[in-house]
Amino acid sequence: MLVCGTHRGLYRLDGPHDDPTRTAECGRVHEVAPSGDARLAATADGLFRSPDGEDWRPLDGPDDPVSVLAGPETVLVGTGDADVLRARPATDGWRFDPVGDLGAHPHGDRWRDRAPSGAPSVRTLAVHPDDGVLAGLEPGGVYAFGGDFWRRYGGGPRRRPRPARAR
């Protein structure tokens, strides 16, 4: 089974010669991630979970998920408001706790000034064995959370100012 997301929702494909079947109308799909036997999807209409790729249910979580990363014990969700949340099953649904305070980083004002909507988005998430959680922001670069605070990760691309030339 293959689950994929488009700007029109979620689709499931069971075999190479089958036509894809739309399984959820949930607006634009930003990312789909496996979580054990289930799948999670970060969409324009919120975060969704499916045990089989066919029956999708919304999770009572962030309104603006942009990225999702699922591991064996933890689910991370990046939002369109520069937040990274750790999701855990709870007795009454799911619990979402912040992973540090990425929005309070000293570079935060710079990100907000350059973001078209005024809020940077956490576009991608990864886990590094030595550096912890990595978050790729648009705009903003890559930041790492090692347990205490978020820090800029690596040097990133450097732009050198170029002198203006008259033509």
Written account of the structure:
The chain is globular and about 50 Å long. The protein has one helix at 108-114; strands at residues 2-6, 9-13, 21-24, 29-35, 38-43, 46-50, 57-58, 65-70, 75-79, 84-90, 93-98, 121-128, 132-138, 141-145, 150-152. The chain has 2 domains: 1-59, no CATH class; 66-154, no CATH class. Helix content is 4%, strand content 49%.
Write a short abstract of this structure.
The chain has 167 residues and is mainly β. Helices cover 4% and strands 49% of the residues.
Considering the chains and any ligands shown, give keywords for the structure:
mainly beta; globular; 167 residues; 2 domains; four-stranded antiparallel sheet; single chain
Strand order of the largest sheet: 4-5-6-7
Q: What is the H/E string?
A: EEEEEEEEEEEHEEEE
Name the overall outline: globular
Instruction: Estimate the mean pLDDT confidence.
Output: 84
Number of strands: 15
Helix content: under 10%
* Approximate strand percentage: over 45%
- Indicate the low-confidence ranges by residue numbers: none
Number of separate helices: 1
How many structural domains in the coordinates?
A: 2
Cα-based radius of gyration, to the nearest Å = 18 Å
Task: Report the biggest beta sheet as strand number plus sense, adding barrel if it closes.
Answer: 4 strands, antiparallel
End-to-end distance, in Å?
58 Å
Structural class: mainly beta
